[in-house]
Structure of Beta-1,4-mannosyltransferase:
Amino acid sequence: MLTFLCAVFVVGIIIMVGKLRRPNTTQKCAHIVVLGDLGRSPRMCNHAIQFEKHKFNVQLIGYAESKLGQTISNNNNINVSALKPFPQIEGLPAVLVYGLKILWQFGTLFIRLCQLPKPDVICVQNPPSIPAIFTTFLVAKIRGARLIIDWHNYGYSMLALKHGVRHWIVHLCQKYEFFLGQLADINICVSDTFKQNLGVHLIKASVLYDKPTDQFHILTTEEKHQILMKMSTKYSYKQFQGKLDDSTRFTSEDEKNNVTYVKDRPAILVSSTSWSEDENFTLLFDALKQYGSDDTTNLPSIVCIVTGKGPLKDQFIEQVEREREQYKHIEFCFPWLDADDYPLLLGCADLGVCLHQSSSGFDLPMKVVDMFAVGVPVCAVHYDCIGELVRRDQNGVIFQDSHDLSDRLESLLRGYPDRCLKLESLKSNLKNNLSNENWSTEWETVMKPLIRL
């Protein structure tokens, strides 16, 4: 009897696997997996768009917490398949809740990947690593698909920020990542330094640099006026409100629809963030407290825009509110924008700040790529491989601490808006060195040969 039941079980498994491996249609299919908010995963959304251009039916799988751009939401060949988030559980030990969350994520992701049409490729973002890589690896083997791991960072290094490098879960995650990375069919990563480190751990990877999409371009004065007006009206941020109906604090429009800059406008400083542990926002806030403290001669006031959302956002906003009197010449704005409005507001900035320090030291911030594409120079905090992206005094500056950042801001903005020669030099370099490279051409060069299109 036991032998009969085992035989039935084995036959059932064979039939199920055979069904899961059977193509539903003749069209190629790609599963793009993010065990996080799809709206805050622009690189994976860009993958989806590129696969669709190559006639794939694309299933974009993750948490639908933020609104996606029209390029995806209006595309009939890209289906957003939202996962159910882990429910809030109170009164249980943190370790038990963490274990239950992993089981929930594994189960919901595994079932969803098996419900969807059979994939030819599964492309998963890492991190988060647990259980995303294992789940996608298992489904890829069951359904006969090739697994692509897109290494944005190391998951274990992110865990180390919270638990310390010697914690057992950090060591376990490290071994888990490197083992499954060796089993993947294709590995891609975001920097050459990252590629070299993956090679040390016997993982052969190709570098797919982040590049801007067509949404990012240098704005005209009219485009800037339109988005600044939208910030004042639709988003109701008083930091942008002008004295007249057709004006903002930065631009004005006359009766003939000619747009000009307001002469005594503040400078716009922008920083894009996921509000996570590998971005030290204390650096920026301390620097802005020091800004103009010794000499305000020819220094403009600043409207500091910090876009994005994440786990530490509320904490820092509360801190800024408590310390409001310490910011003598600074106003803050913390918007979360529609995906189509973000590139436009970014293009209005005079200067960008990047506080990404990289838990691993190997990844490069996509936000800097976006800023360069709209002609905005960047002040970036130093870490090992940032020089692959930010070149000193060519497209930006690199700083070490809050005092250094404050000095850089004063140096670049002194004489604003008409006599800040160093800032204008950086902007001019960016405009003169704009290349024809974009995400599409980079993807065609790197990914197309890897997946043998």
In short: The chain has 16 helices and 15 strands.
